[in-house]
Amino acid sequence: MSMSTPEMIETLDGIREMLRRSTEDALALDSKLAYVIIAAVSAVKDELDDRWERE
What is the pTM of this model? Predict the structure, then answer.
């Protein structure tokens, strides 16, 4: 899967917002939400790894 830079930024922004809301509301992360965060971070990391290898 290839992600553009704007897509990666949008993904990280969404993760930041989910974590901010969880922290401010003093709520534990739901396991489904945690899975979504892990999957999103993994996708961004994989894309950055691919870009690094191509350079």
Answer: 0.75
